[in-house]
Amino acid sequence: MSTWYIESALAKTSRIILQRGILGEVGLEEWAPCGTPVVVIADPIVLDKHPHLETRLTQWAGPDSIYQLDISEATKNLTTVEKLYQEFGTRHVRRDTVVVAVGGGVLTDTVGYAAATYLRGIKWIAIPTTLLGQVDAAIGGKVAVNVSWGKNLVGAFHLPQAVIIDPQVLHTLPMRQWRAGVGEVMKSALIDGQWLWEQLNDSVPAFGSEEWDSLVEATAGIKVAIVNNDLEETASRMYLNFGHTVAHGLENYLGYGRITHGEAVALGTRVALALSEEVLGLDEAVRRTVEQWMIAWELPLTLSQGDWNAVFEAMTQDKKSRAHGLQWVLLKDVGHPLIYRNLPRKQVQETMERILSI
Ligand SMILES: NC(=O)c1ccc[n+]([C@@H]2O[C@H](COP(=O)([O-])OP(=O)(O)OC[C@H]3O[C@@H](n4cnc5c(N)ncnc54)[C@H](O)[C@@H]3O)[C@@H](O)[C@H]2O)c1
Ligand SMILES: [Zn+2]
After folding, report:
1. The domain that contains 209 carries what CATH number?
2. Diameter of the chain measured on Cα atoms
3. For residue range 83-100, what is the model confidence (pLDDT) as tens digits?
4. pTM for the full model?
């Protein structure tokens, strides 16, 4: 079991608890003392596959307190946020209500954003149920939805009071969602460069194996450490965007939901590693290693279509583009990320084409 805390300057604390089976044991008393209204927003697929969890949530929140939100990357937008506001209104959500979000990163990002903005901010708890959510999305209080011209462009920093991580719920995860999660696991291994990197170099575990518990713990721990150093992403938290400049451009260019966020991160990671070789002299062996992991996990290494000019245009709409051009996270070495600006457009497009074309 691991318990971490993220402290913010606003004297708010986010407690992150990770333990196999914890959802069968933990109560909500600490965050919602008796009498506190609780509203649960949950993914219907998760409730369907985990009836015990549904029973547990009903015990916490009371009968009729669970709202089932059917959501995907394509509907991670302000229309869904408005639907949530309406639901909050119908359920008489007050300043002291605690909202519990149960699902993948799309759901926790969207519910977290609704909680950040409704009544100028209400308390929330995240229960991530995907690998990607458990190692990354639910931790650290960045909440957001997409707009047509860019991913996660409408958002806020709003720490959940608690993040309850139970790797046991992952056993029902479809293979494609495991793949999505490893996109972020690989990213964390590369920017951290310590135990996780060495572990993956030793063996690439099969999806669903119990070996994943320690990898989830290590990856979540890397995120907690980085967020604790730079909650509002003015410096080192930007390193978590490794691979994301291209990833967000690809997701926007292809249409939200056409590839998963994690697949896009994996492709973006290959490009970021190649650019790191060109600009910072990173050893090509690093990319070769990552490509071997991607092959083992059956992640796509290339795209069947690519108008690199259009992908670049989509990238410049991304939130990481600043007044002085696109902002890149590159690697000098494993564990040594750097922020890099002013990469020539021609070089970026040529590298994307070289690396991602079939
Ligand atoms: N806020 C952050 O810091 C942050 C960080 C990384 C990613 N993200 C965001 O996370 C999102 C991606 O999240 P995701 O990869 O979790 O995708 P997702 O939320 O779309 O979930 C993927 C699918 O898995 C299903 N699912 C969820 N839990 C399940 C379970 N236990 N068993 C079976 N099926 C289950 C869902 O119904 C969904 O169909 C992106 O929008 C990305 O921008 C946010
Ligand atoms: Zn990501």
Report:
1. 1.20.1090.10
2. 60
3. 999 999 999 999 999 999
4. 0.95
